[in-house]
Design brief:
- By secondary structure, this protein is mainly α.
- It is built from seven helices and two strands, in the order αααββαααα.
- It has one domain.
- It has a two-stranded antiparallel sheet with strand order 1-2.
- A hairpin with a 2-residue loop joins strand 1 (56-57) and strand 2 (60-61).
Length: 121
């Protein structure tokens, strides 16, 4: 399987650990959500960012699921993940659904950071 790109790599937001905009906006929760590590082949929440509050969209931090629902399903990164994962009739996860899914995971996978992820920003 080809290596999967994470949202911060695709969007070049600079909110990943060591990113250029961390001092201005803080580290993105998608980059640090270790419980979501491995979902859709991403690092931490990097390929399920639409289900994590506090991510960036259109230069603004998105705080709630309701506020993110429209913007995320129309995002070019969301469309990329949808296409790569071949999930077709995919429904966006609510925070409750994500929590339930993560609670059912039998084991946690340690987060892994690729050095090249941090160097390009």
């Amino acid at each position: 399987m080809a290596e999967r790109i994470n949202c911060w790599e695709f969007k070049k937001c600079g909110r990943e650990p060591g990113g250029t905009r961390v001092n201005e906006f803080g580290i993105c929760p998608a980059a640090t959500e270790t419980a979501a590590n491995g979902i859709n082949g991403g690092i931490n929440g990097g390929r399920i960012c639409w289900a994590i509050a506090g991510t960036f969209y259109d230069g603004k931090i998105q705080g709630t699921y309701a506020g993110k629902m429209f913007s995320c399903t129309n995002c070019d990164f969301f469309e990329l993940v949808d296409k790569e994962e071949k999930i077709g009739n995919y429904e966006i996860l609510t925070p409750v659904q994500l929590s339930q899914f993560l609670a059912r995971r039998s084991k946690k996978v340690s987060p892994t950071w690729r050095k090249e992820s941090q160097s390009g920003f």
